């Protein structure tokens, strides 16, 4: 018999905006609580979508309504349960070590679908400390310390040993990690620390004056390592680097890129100057520049320079399928309104702007060319209302 399978009876039902919920005579499903997400699984063959405890009743959100009194089979997804138990027990170990070895309290924690997080009460924690913490955790993993769960009456609990005081009365569930932790906890746990595999901290961020660590454990750690390796392999193949050389190389590439951007800008300014000088030979009120293959930055630089000479500048860029209109403010044409009206008349493109500058984007170069031709025609014929 599958230990994750059970037979039971529906004792109560209710519906709300999220759907149909059922309560069961007995259940093996873990309801969300204590930073741990709910179990997954099926009930009467259909997926259980959520499990919540309300006033000591465990409610299961099901895909299809079930009748009160119905005999049903529940199956808990053991892979999901195991994963949650690993992430949750890893949190016990991290919290215990942070407090005992570093004097840092855990303020809150949660298990996400990919990563789990821990907010800790400190404003200084660095990556050397994280590596040292990970080594401490690994030692506890290798020692394969038993994790035991048992229930005690409030009077039997050794309150001074508790990691966190509890004001619960009656029966209290204790979770103890041999020689490391003694805690009142209702979550699910692994049987021994060896089952955690690896506990790997993935990020560290400052939040609200504290530090938030995110981590992965067990199979999630392996998945994370696979993802890092895939990303690194792509970088290594592209840049011919190794783990040892990649950081310096990326910084070098970034600096080269910044240098080249500066050079490109200087070249664009020279090209723009030359092109505008050629335009000025023409005695036109409207000057049109069409950039078929150039960068958008070059088109806009040319447009700005034409406008600075007192003409109305029209610049089209085929690569970005964009159009710019600009004048120096001495013309009475409200260029943004003019552009918008022309596009509305044509029924293509989207754009607009202010009195002296405007821009539009098109879905195709054909639309861009049509709009450019119409705009130039209207400007030359003076078909603009001011
Ligand atoms: Zn726990």
TrEMBL record:
Its cofactor is Zn(2+). Keywords: Metal-binding, Zinc. It is found in: Cytoplasm. Its main location: cytoplasm. Gene3D superfamilies: 2.40.30.130, Threonyl-trna Synthetase, Chain A, domain 2. PROSITE patterns: AA_TRNA_LIGASE_II_ALA. It holds the Pfam family tRNA_SAD. SMART domains: tRNA_SAD (SM00863). Residues 1-227 form the Alanyl-transfer RNA synthetases family profile domain. This is Alanyl-tRNA editing protein. The lineage of its organism: Bacteria, Bacillati, Bacillota, Bacilli, Bacillales.
């Amino acid at each position: 018999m599958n230990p994750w399978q059970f037979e039971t009876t529906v004792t109560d039902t209710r519906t709300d905006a999220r759907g149909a919920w059922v309560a069961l005579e007995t259940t093996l499903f873990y309801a969300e609580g204590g930073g741990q997400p709910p179990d997954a699984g099926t009930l009467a063959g259909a997926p259980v979508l959520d499990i919540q405890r309300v006033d000591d009743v465990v409610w299961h959100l099901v895909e299809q309504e079930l009748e009160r009194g119905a005999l049903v089979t529940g199956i808990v997804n053991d892979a999901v349960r195991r994963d949650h138990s690993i992430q949750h027990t890893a949190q016990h170990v991290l919290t215990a070590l942070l407090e005992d070895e570093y004097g840092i309290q855990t303020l809150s924690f949660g298990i996400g679908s990919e990563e789990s997080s821990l907010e800790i009460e400190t404003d200084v924690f660095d990556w050397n400390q994280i590596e040292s913490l990970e080594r401490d955790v690994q030692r506890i993993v290798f020692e394969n310390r038993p994790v035991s769960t048992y229930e005690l009456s409030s009077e039997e609990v050794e309150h001074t040993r508790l990691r966190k005081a509890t004001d619960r009365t009656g029966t209290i569930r204790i979770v103890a990690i041999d020689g490391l932790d003694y805690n009142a906890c209702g979550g699910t746990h692994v049987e021994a620390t060896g089952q955690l595999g690896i506990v790997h901290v993935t990020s560290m961020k400052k939040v609200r004056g504290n530090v938030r660590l995110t981590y992965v454990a067990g199979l999630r750690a392996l998945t994370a390592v696979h993802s890092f390796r895939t990303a690194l392999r792509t970088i290594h193949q592209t840049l011919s680097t190794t783990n040892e050389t990649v950081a310096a190389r990326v910084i070098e590439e970034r600096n080269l890129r910044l240098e080249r951007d500066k050079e490109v800008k200087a070249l664009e300014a020279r090209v723009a100057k030359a092109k505008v000088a050629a335009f000025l030979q023409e005695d036109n009120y409207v000057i049109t520049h069409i950039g078929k293959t150039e960068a958008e930055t070059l088109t806009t630089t040319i447009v700005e320079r034409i406008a600075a000479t007192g003409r109305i500048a029209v610049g089209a860029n085929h690569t970005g399928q964009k159009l710019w209109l600009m004048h120096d403010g001495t013309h009475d044409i409200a260029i943004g309104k003019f552009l918008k009206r022309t596009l509305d008349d044509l029924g293509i493109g989207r754009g607009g702007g202010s009195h002296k500058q405007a821009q539009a984007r098109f879905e195709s170069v054909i639309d861009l060319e049509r709009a450019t031709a119409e705009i130039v025609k209207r400007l030359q014929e003076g078909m603009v209302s001011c």
